[in-house]
């Protein structure tokens, strides 16, 4: 890593830095010869010892040994529910996280980027080969501490205590923490000498956070939690210089992501109105699938009966129709082959889903059950024990299970919202979205499974409206989106592999 920085920055910066340090040592040695300097040195040493004694009360990760394996004491100390040293509190008063003001790429000197990359490479990644586990645990604990509302957002009971030692052995908690800290690692991998192209990428990435129900006020919380992790875990401590550099980079990235998030929230409202207008149009090729007669009944008593019937069906999961071979997403679908009628089929048939009472819970539960049935390996990927039975009726009472199902089906809703007359800009958007799926450990072979599970949900919920014509439209759109997402996923895995070899 240092070799790479020397090639980018140039040897002069490193050389001049060493010379400056040598000159300071000589000057301090001369001053030490005078009695006044001696008394000043003693006073400084006493003050420093007090600060060090305070910081020693906070559990810190011990320096790594010659191998990259982390000592057991390191993991134990990082996972300890003690937080935020006095030094970091003083520093945060002067260095604040504020993503509301734009920081232009040309305002960031590369020495700032180098400080961020060096501190990440040498003070976090060198904690050990299992660095993501202790730092991820610390990260999620701090988020829960700073904003208790995020506890239920992450799918945990509202009375969960952030400092509960048992959380360190909760695999769902650990998995979520690891994914969060690896997202920071991915963000660090995007940094380089030229940050201007990154502005557009961050703007698009902000769009994707709608699927996670993100809000602008979450960014300062995540940033503060991250800095607390650095206080807890960084080998050698989190210096003021490093804090300044990280704050500048975090504010730069956060601003553009929040702008993308806000813009897309606004577009969703506009597209929803447009989608309703399209739904009400008469198109000769297909019938209006969104009429009240083709949807679930809306009265409370009848809905309760239908939901109980639907629940019995989804637990049995009797549908065995296989669509996987037609949903491989391995061939590029030209936009010229996608007609307006195809988009119309998808949009109007999706409206049938949206008209189901409590559609997110009903379809989300079905969706994740089918995924578990079609590919049992996904059970552990989603953070559940390997022996979890997808037919277990008690899963409906599991907050984490239901939350994951709702998030999945909402991701499909977001994809439908992106459809419109012009699909060309969508190629780059879904390509970038595919790159983000690295955080979820996604693989290309997962796309056919997800697609088949989705189609089985449609069979269950569309009440005969998932006709051959509608199915062909969804197949075309799913393969179009899936191909570009997989290409982005592969590119990101390749980039990470190349970065790991440097």
Taking the sheet with the most strands, its summary is: none
Q: Tell me the radius of gyration.
A: 27 Å
Overall average residue pLDDT: 75
Kindly name the structural category. Answer: mainly alpha
The topology string of helices and strands comes to HHHHHHHHHHHHHHHHHHHH
Would you count the extended β strands for me? 0
Globally, the shape reads: globular
Can you characterise this structure?
The chain has 502 residues and is an all-alpha fold. Helix content is 65%, strand content 0%. Helix 6 packs across helix 12 and helix 7 (132-146) packs across helix 11. The longest helix is centred in the middle third of the chain and has 40 residues, at 240-279. The termini are close together.
């Amino acid at each position: 890593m240092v070799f790479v920085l020397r090639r980018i920055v140039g040897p002069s910066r490193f050389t001049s830095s060493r010379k400056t340090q040598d000159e300071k040592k000589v000057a301090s040695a001369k001053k030490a010869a005078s009695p006044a300097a001696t008394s000043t040195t003693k006073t400084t040493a006493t003050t420093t010892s007090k600060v060090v004694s305070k910081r020693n009360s906070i559990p810190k990760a011990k320096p790594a040994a010659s191998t990259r394996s982390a000592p057991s004491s390191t993991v134990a100390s990082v996972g300890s529910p003690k937080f935020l040293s006095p030094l970091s509190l003083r520093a945060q008063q002067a260095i604040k996280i504020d993503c509301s003001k734009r920081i232009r790429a040309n305002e960031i000197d590369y020495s700032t980027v180098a400080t961020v990359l060096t501190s990440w490479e040498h003070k976090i990644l060198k904690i050990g080969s299992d660095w993501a586990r202790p730092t991820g645990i610390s990260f999620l604990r701090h988020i829960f501490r700073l904003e208790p509302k995020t506890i239920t957002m992450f799918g945990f009971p509202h009375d969960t205590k952030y400092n509960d030692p048992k959380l360190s052995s909760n695999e769902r908690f650990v998995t979520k923490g690891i994914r969060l800290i690896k997202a920071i690692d991915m963000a660090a991998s995007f940094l380089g000498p030229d940050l201007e192209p990154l502005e557009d990428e961050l703007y698009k990435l902000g769009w994707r956070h709608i699927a996670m129900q993100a809000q602008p006020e979450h960014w300062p919380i995540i940033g503060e939690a991250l800095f607390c992790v650095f206080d807890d875990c960084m080998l050698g401590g989190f210096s003021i210089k490093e804090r300044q550099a990280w704050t500048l980079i975090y504010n730069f990235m956060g601003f553009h992501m929040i702008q993308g998030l806000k813009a897309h929230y606004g577009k969703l409202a506009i597209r929803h109105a447009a989608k309703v207008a399209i739904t009400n149009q008469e198109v000769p090729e297909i019938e209006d699938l969104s009429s009240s007669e083709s949807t679930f009944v809306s009265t409370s008593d009848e809905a309760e009966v239908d939901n109980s019937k639907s629940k019995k069906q989804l637990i049995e999961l009797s549908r065995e129709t296989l669509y996987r071979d037609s949903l491989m997403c391995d061939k590029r679908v030209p936009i010229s082959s996608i007609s307006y009628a195809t988009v119309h089929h998808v949009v109007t048939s999706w409206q049938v889903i949206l008209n189901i009472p409590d559609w997110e819970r009903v379809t989300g539960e079905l969706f994740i059950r089918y995924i578990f049935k079609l590919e049992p390996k996904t059970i552990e990927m989603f953070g559940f024990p390997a022996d979890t039975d997808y037919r277990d009726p008690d899963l409906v009472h599991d907050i984490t299970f239901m939350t994951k199902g709702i998030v999945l089906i909402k991701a499909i809703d977001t994809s439908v919202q992106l459809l419109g007359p012009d699909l060309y800009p969508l190629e780059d958007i879904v390509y970038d979205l595919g790159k983000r799926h690295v955080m979820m450990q996604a693989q290309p072979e997962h796309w056919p499974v997800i697609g088949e599970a989705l189609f089985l949900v449609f069979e269950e919920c569309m009440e005969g409206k998932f006709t051959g014509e509608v199915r062909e439209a969804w197949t075309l759109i799913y393969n179009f989106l899936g191909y570009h997402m997989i290409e982005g996923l592969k590119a990101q895995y390749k980039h990470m592999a190349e970065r790991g070899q440097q």
